[in-house]
Structure prediction request, 466 residues.
Amino acid sequence: MVMMRWVRPLVGLAVVSGVLLGCASIQNAPVNLPGSSEILAERLPLSFANRGGKDDVIVGLSFSGGGTRAAAFSFGVLQELERIPVRGAQEPMIDKIDFISGVSGGSVTAAYYGLKRRAALADFREKFLMRNAEEGLQTSLSLGTFSRALAGGINDSTGFPRWLDANLFDGATFGQLRPDGRPQVWINASDIYSRTPFVFSPVTFRAMCSDLSQYPLSNAVAASAAVPVAFAPVVIQTFPGKCQDPLPPWVARASDNPNAPPLLSRFARALTRYHDGSMPFIKLLDGGLVDNFGVSGFTIARLTSDTPYGPFSPAQAVKVRRLMFLVVDAAAGGGGADWIHTVEGPRGVDLVRAAADTAIDASVAGSFTAFNATMTDWLGSLIRWRCGLSAAERARYGAPANWNCRDVKFFIGRVGFDQLPRERAAELERVPTRFQLPPEQVDSVIAAGRDALRANPTFRSFASNL
Prediction:
């Protein structure tokens, strides 16, 4: 009898949930298109070498997740880069940016800057940061939204992209990012079946025989920001057999090598599933679930290279003198939960949120540590290769007469709230990670981005070494 007392309510809840699920319908039709071998052959690979060896200075930025808070913080960093001139040159530092990677809120800034470049600084605040990007979305779990949450997500994959196109991107696609110029933009989501990063890059789309150039920026950003439960997964379709190109050789090597780095082997196995038809549909959620810093794509780009200088071209590897890569980190820290003071909890939405935050925070340290180690190893290999070149090879790759093979430095760092005074950092941490903030909070976070970059030791050291 005691057991029956709690079994009956559970049965009743199951019946109600079944009825609600029967009424709910989440429509997430894929919007990516197939591409022929001829079309895909024109697309550039996931490579630093595409920058063409135009400069001896390389700058890469990665914008973390964190809603409008992250978008505003990264925007402040871009503002400061526009203000600071390159030593010995008339151009501002912002013109040196070669790569931007974005996750969730940071992907909005990355995509819009990639599309508009410096013109984005004139209107991004008014067009996005000061707007309510949640209008038209249902952002809380209630009796009215419970059935949609159980069906896969309170919001489908149409509402947020529609808002982004109406207010920011105007239907722009990856093909409008001008892949032959600065900067190259990577938007990051999470493949929740393969448990790997999903980088919106030509390499990934070629594996599925799909044309990245026709994919809407708004949909990629929405996938990058699709928080579990609040959003249903964004769906990407694979088109096996629509193109004849084989996968790159490194995919088979990484898949079959038990000693390959786990990040690389998982990514390789995912690409294989995209290509061979065993995974007809890819389901994407918030990029922060596997890499909230958005640096995995860069780590993979180096790990897949079979040369000491890759993913640079030989000419770029000879010319480069200074490389800086900064992670712009507006992610939430721990704390702020009331349930740590009671035996009960967390429950319901708090439990889901805590689980997602745990996954995101756990991914941060690992992804940045792997990235930093990979870049350090790359620098050593690059110097050894440069110093081993013959006179003929140096001439072929464009080395000047007074060229110093050891004159190359990498500056790898992070710009975060915690690098500001403690009281100010605590205030910034209290800013919600959603897509609607009061104007005073937006401006406070923008100013923090400017100040944090200006005081950042990695950036200061890089600027003084130019």
